[in-house]
Amino acid sequence: MTENQSGNENQNAGENASANELAQLRTLLIDRPPMARELPAFEVDEAPAGPGELFVQWLLGAFRAGVPDAQVMVLSTAGPDGRVLVLRDVDPAAGLWWFAGDADSPKGRQLAAEPRAALTFYWPQLGRQVRVRGTVQSGEAAAAAEQFRLLSPNSRTAALVGRQSEPLTGAEEFRTAWAQAAAELAREPRTVAEGYTRYAVRAEEVEFWQGAADRRHVRLVYRRSADGWQRGLVWP
Ligand SMILES: Cc1cc2nc3c(=O)[nH]c(=O)nc-3n(C[C@H](O)[C@H](O)[C@H](O)COP(=O)(O)O)c2cc1C
């Protein structure tokens, strides 16, 4: 066998392996319907008057059910972008959902240009989804600084490195920037990353979605009105 033939064979073997993987994946996508397990019932008549209270119950329920990273959500901004973020706080009385990020990142710039967003949570063990839609406001700089100083040293170093989502030439450039930021933090432990901002979605609409294995899902939507929260079901 020539070198060339053996090379072709290897290439074919590689293609077959990936073709096999793709076939396997396609089978899994068909054979594994989501939420094919026992899920909690959603007694909508017993739901609290405000969405914040129900959210607190559901998020606590997700932690208790062992959902890993239950406080992690998708932040969608106006435009084509979404990304995963951590929920930092919730204020049920005001209907505020808090998160944090760099004002000088793509999401920060998008929020500055159009301060509207949606937050989406999904807790697979419970088949529950929550969607929060509303306007976005920035928190006070002093509160952001206070929160920043409570973050782990690695999180603070990462924020000080900054330049989030900009092109990176390689690992070495990152290592150097990290070392500089870590040194700065060691010198000045109270340093706060420049663009670090607390944001809140002021909910206008919050949807609670309870999945069911038989696909008879239940959806309850709260809408903010001049008279407080109105709520109603929507078709699944
Ligand atoms: C589990 C998880 C948690 C994250 N938490 C945050 C966060 O709280 N704040 C943040 O700015 N980015 C967070 N990220 C990174 C974002 O998903 C995203 O990559 C980054 O914010 C850049 O987004 P942008 O280019 O749209 O601004 C997290 C990512 C994951 C996977």
Question: How would you explain this protein's 3D organization?
Answer:
Strands 1, 2, 3, 4, 5, 6, 7, 8 and 9 form a 9-stranded antiparallel β-sheet that branches. Helix 5 (153-161) crosses helix 6 (171-187). The chain has 2 domains: 1-32; 40-144 and 193-234, Electron Transport, Fmn-binding Protein, Chain A (Pnp Oxidase, Chain A, Roll). The chain is globular. With 236 residues, the protein is of the alpha+beta class. A hairpin with a 4-residue loop joins strand 3 and strand 4. It is 37% helix and 30% strand. The structure holds flavin mononucleotide. Flavin mononucleotide binds at residues 69, 72, 81, 83-86, 99-101, 105-107, 164-165.
CATH superfamily of the largest domain, called what? Electron Transport, Fmn-binding Protein, Chain A
Straight-line N-to-C gap: 61 Å
**From the coordinates shown, what is the CATH architecture of the largest domain?**
Roll
- Helical coverage, percent range: 25-40%
Sketch the topology as an H/E string, one letter per element. HHEEEEHEEHHHEEE
> How many beta-strand runs?
9
- Oligomer state equals single chain
How many structural units, i.e. domains? 2
User: What is the CATH topology descriptor of the largest domain?
Assistant: Pnp Oxidase, Chain A
Question: Could you name the ranges where pLDDT drops below 50 across 5 or more consecutive residues?
Answer: 1-6
* CATH class label of the largest domain: Mainly Beta
Structural class: alpha+beta
Helical run tally: 6
